[in-house]
């Protein structure tokens, strides 16, 4: 007979296999608690513990009043590089951005060459959600990460979406906040990336991503002075 802990782990693994087998994407909703418990043949209390385990592993996320969804972080832990323990947050943000300059323009170019209509539609929704938060002055880190991870995913490289999740560190790591002008520029350049990908213009997508990252660098510099 399985112990509660082993049963919970097994159920969590079965949910992961189901997500993979059904090719669910970040943001896709899982069946409700009753249906999932019935499908897996377990009690609802066991299912809840399994879901908690998957939340801690960033495989799924719970949206109060809406349900359980596949996480945009795709199983990446909150701080896999231990950045929380690095005290110079400006240096951390600057160095992460340096890596993004090396990787993301090429990913945007590949996304432009390989983007399907379905993927473009997904990018449009993510860009809209990010822009809405930016222009409202709200925390846009979650939406921004999801958008750039989706661009990486559209490139066709199966590894880099998780890397994008790590590199797009939340602006909250810095003490200051972006100015309204900086937020407007970030939203505009994000939109230019989307336009270039939609036009399947590889060079324009590459350049648009460079411009967006340059704006990120200016924003970091401004925040570091606050």
Automatic annotation (TrEMBL):
<dbReference type="InterPro" id="IPR000524">
    <property type="entry name" value="Tscrpt_reg_HTH_GntR"/>
</dbReference>
<dbReference type="Pfam" id="PF00392">
    <property type="entry name" value="GntR"/>
</dbReference>
<feature type="domain" description="HTH gntR-type">
    <location>
        <begin position="5"/>
        <end position="73"/>
    </location>
</feature>
<keyword id="KW-0805">Transcription regulation</keyword>
<keyword id="KW-0238">DNA-binding</keyword>
<dbReference type="Pfam" id="PF07729">
    <property type="entry name" value="FCD"/>
</dbReference>
<keyword id="KW-0804">Transcription</keyword>
<protein>
    <submittedName>
        <fullName>FadR family transcriptional regulator</fullName>
    </submittedName>
</protein>
<dbReference type="InterPro" id="IPR011711">
    <property type="entry name" value="GntR_C"/>
</dbReference>
């Amino acid at each position: 007979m399985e112990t509660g802990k082993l049963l919970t782990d097994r159920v969590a693994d079965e949910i992961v296999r189901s997500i993979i087998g059904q090719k669910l994407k970040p943001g896709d909703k899982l069946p409700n608690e009753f249906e999932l418990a019935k499908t897996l043949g377990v009690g609802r209390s066991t299912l809840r513990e399994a879901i908690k385990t998957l939340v801690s592993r960033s495989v799924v996320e719970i949206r109060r009043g809406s349900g359980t969804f596949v996480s945009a972080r795709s199983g990446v832990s909150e701080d896999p590089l231990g950045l929380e323990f690095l005290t110079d947050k400006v240096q951390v943000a600057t160095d992460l951005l340096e890596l993004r300059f090396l990787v993301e323009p090429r990913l945007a170019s590949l996304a432009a060459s390989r983007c399907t209509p379905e993927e473009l539609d997904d990018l449009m929704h993510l860009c809209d959600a990010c822009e809405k938060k930016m222009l409202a002055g709200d925390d846009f880190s979650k939406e921004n990460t999801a958008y750039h991870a989706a661009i990486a995913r559209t490139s066709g490289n199966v590894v880099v979406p998780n890397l994008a999740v790590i590199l797009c560190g939340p602006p909250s790591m810095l003490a200051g906040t972006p100015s309204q002008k900086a937020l407007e520029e970030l939203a505009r350049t994000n939109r230019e990336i989307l336009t270039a990908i939609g036009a399947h213009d590889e060079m324009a997508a590459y350049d648009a991503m460079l411009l967006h990252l340059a704006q990120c660098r200016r924003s970091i510099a401004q925040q570091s002075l606050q």
